[in-house]
């Protein structure tokens, strides 16, 4: 999809604060099929918070010595960006968002970006950053992009501006929130179905989920390149990708029936299909987390995102909360980190 253009304007009043938040993604069944080389695909995933948070402080341009100042709070970094001369030498994704969203010429900006999810957790955090930042910047000029448009603009930042490999699901999850089923008839176009669950199913799913961070950030684009090379020219016909498409549909059916045991089985089978794509997609640490999960009778496990070194694993527990706490204590004693979460009923929010 081509990058969308935006006009400059003078609609911003001085001393304005714009807030934007977007959820991250876990338990992506059918991931790898939402890509250009898969051609068509299906994905089930769950949007969760902690959100990515973006806060934009806007002042009159004559009242500020710097036009745009970015604080990447998780990295402890503060840097200036000249919107007229983007250099892509600080945080390229953030700079790309500023590049495509033309800022009001009469204003200066201080932009703070923060997420409680650690970088490289394979939970779609970079996509959520792009969606939240674009949503906040969109709020500053006349006209509005829909969440769907913002998701695809965020995807274009990674693929067109930065030349990275990226599926479409992370951006759509950040934009829509909730528990979703994506049907992709042909890349990159997708139909997003927000799955409406009875409250008891929603609450029970939320209580049973656990996301465990391995602790080593990774680059999903590098992993994509490696697997794409192995898949060859007929990647769309690969039997493991086809099985993942079917597993996404099975996950949708399981959750709509409130059958968490079946959902757990689908999660585990999807992870094993990832392993079949390339053994390195399920790293040694992920297998250690999975083994501990088995000791505590988890219903299923999913290596989040593309997999590979680092990242995180989603575990679906059996419903015994005390055993879940014991499992997490065991994992944390081995150096892993529990990422507390709640399922996000909403996607991108801007105010």
Describe, in plain words, how this protein is organized in 3D.
The chain has 351 residues and is of the alpha+beta class. It has one domain (16-350): Ribosomal Protein S5, domain 2 (2-Layer Sandwich). It has helices at 92-100, 125-138, 147-161, 169-176, 199-208, 220-231, 239-256, 260-277, 284-295, 321-333, and strands at 16-29, 41-60, 68-72, 77-81, 107-115, 179-186, 189-194, 209-213, 300-303, 312-316, 337-338, 342-343, 349-350. Strands 1, 2, 3, 4, 5, 6, 7, 12 and 13 form a nine-stranded mixed sheet that branches. A four-stranded antiparallel sheet has the order 9-10-8-11. A hairpin with a 2-residue loop joins strand 6 and strand 7 (189-194). The radius of gyration is 20 Å and the shape is globular. The two termini are 27 Å apart. 50% of the residues are buried.
List the helices and strands and how they pair.
Blueprint: E1 16-29, E2 41-60, E3 68-72, E4 77-81, H1 92-100, E5 107-115, H2 125-138, H3 147-161, H4 169-176, E6 179-186, E7 189-194, H5 199-208, E8 209-213, H6 220-231, H7 239-256, H8 260-277, H9 284-295, E9 300-303, E10 312-316, H10 321-333, E11 337-338, E12 342-343, E13 349-350
Parallel strand pairs: 3-5
Antiparallel strand pairs: 1-2, 1-13, 2-5, 2-6, 2-12, 3-4, 6-7, 8-10, 8-11, 9-10
Helix pairs in contact: 1-2, 1-3, 2-3, 2-4, 3-4, 7-8
């Amino acid at each position: 999809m081509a990058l969308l253009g935006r006009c400059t304007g003078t609609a911003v009043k001085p001393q304005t604060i714009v807030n934007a938040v977007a959820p991250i993604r876990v338990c992506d069944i059918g991931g790898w099929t939402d890509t250009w080389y898969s051609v068509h695909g299906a994905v089930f995933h769950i949007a969760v918070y902690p959100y990515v948070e973006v806060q934009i402080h806007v002042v009159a341009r004559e009242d500020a010595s710097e036009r745009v100042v970015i604080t990447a709070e998780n990295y402890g970094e503060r840097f200036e960006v000249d919107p007229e001369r983007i250099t892509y030498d600080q945080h390229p994704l953030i700079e790309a968002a500023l590049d495509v969203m033309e800022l009001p010429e009469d204003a200066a900006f201080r932009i703070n970006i923060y997420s409680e999810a650690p970088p490289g957790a394979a939970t779609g955090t970079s996509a959520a950053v792009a969606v939240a930042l674009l949503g906040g910047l969109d709020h500053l000029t006349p006209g509005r992009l829909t969440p769907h448009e913002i998701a695809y603009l965020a995807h274009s930042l990674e693929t067109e501006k930065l030349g990275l490999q990226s599926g479409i699901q992370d951006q759509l999850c950040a934009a829509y929130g909730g528990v979703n089923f994506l049907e992709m008839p042909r890349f990159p176009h997708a139909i997003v179905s927000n799955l409406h669950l009875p409250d008891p199913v929603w609450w029970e799913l939320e209580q049973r989920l656990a996301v465990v961070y391995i602790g080593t950030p990774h680059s999903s684009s590098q992993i994509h390149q490696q697997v794409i090379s192995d898949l060859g020219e007929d990647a769309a016909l690969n039997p493991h990708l086809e099985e993942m498409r079917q597993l996404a549909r099975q996950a949708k059916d399981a959750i709509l029936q409130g059958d968490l045991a079946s959902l757990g089985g689908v999660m585990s089978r999807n992870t094993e299909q990832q392993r079949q794509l390339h053994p390195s997609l399920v790293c040694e640490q992920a297998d250690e987390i999975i083994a501990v999960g088995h000791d505590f009778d988890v219903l299923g496990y999913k290596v989040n995102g593309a997999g590979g070194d680092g990242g995180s694993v989603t575990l679906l527990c059996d419903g015994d909360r005390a055993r879940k706490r014991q499992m997490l204590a065991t994992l944390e004693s081995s150096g892993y980190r529990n990422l507390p979460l709640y399922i996000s009923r909403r996607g991108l929010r801007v105010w």
